[in-house]
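Suppose a colleague, Dr. K., hands you the sequence of a protein chain of 330 amino acids and asks what its three-dimensional shape might be. Before reaching for any lab equipment, you can write down a predicted structure in token form. Begin with the sequence itself:
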Amino acid sequence: MTLAIAGGGSWGTALAIALSPRFETVRLWVHEPDLAARMRQSRENDVYLPAFPLPANVHVTPSLGEAVENAPVILGVMPSHHARAVYAALKPYAAPGAIVVSATKGLENGTLLRMSQVIAAGLPQARIAVLSGPTFAREIAQGQPAAAIIASADADTAAYVQQAFSGPALRFYTNPDLTGVELGGALKNVIALGAGICQGLGLGSNPLAALVTRGLAEMTRLAVAEGASPLTLAGLSGLGDLVLTCYGELSRNRGVGLELGRGKPIAEIVTSMKMVAEGVKTTRAAVELAARHGVEMPITEQMNAILHQGKSPRLAVRELMERGLKTEAV
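The predicted structure, expressed as tokens, is then:
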């Protein structure tokens, strides 16, 4: 069986390595032709995931059509702001009834759509699933044990992908709650930015624990307003991913927050990065989605003010602490 992976960043490359034993052929689409050429020759991704050799059955190509043509399973691992264009470009090559699995954690700015909704709009015949959970690309490429989620509204699709992707070091659970799984994966990046800010400001463990806990409450409120189950946000794609991204040294979003807390402007931080920190764009979309539902998200609102309105991180922390007193209701 063939697996097509649309996106050759760190996460796409790590998944190609980890899933290669499960498929006869893995076709990995890399957007940059020069990087694709180097990867074919050196058998490693020297930009996004250096020092991890590609297995022999991973075929790298700069041609999206070549990568996805007639593949029964297509795994989308592009940044969220490129997702619509990539899915539109691969539509002429996608096999009828192909399973399209989104591994992108973000919301589309402007439309506020989740990635499964973007896929449904561009590929109406596709069988759609989502891959999410607490997973760092480097640890997945190393073969360290991890657990994640395959979500789909169709139980047969979820079970098929679960069986196809699971292996000795990567265990997948299924979940029918696409909304909760996707929002958990997207919104935790916003809170992780705040976790990095706490460290950048030199704050200790107490404020970080408060941020993570109240951040989860915000995530749950918005997800439930969108129709998700609150139990999903207590699982791997919610709490699990939140803990990983807020505390893990490999978290890009936490790293951005760390530099913000140290006083570096967001434009300078983003310009210096090779990889995308999804939380930067997701923050604005989350604020807009919360406003649509009338959901209170004070941490997310302060993060948006820091990122897009130039607010001081210290002032944001102070305003959060001085808010009106409340009961601990989710």
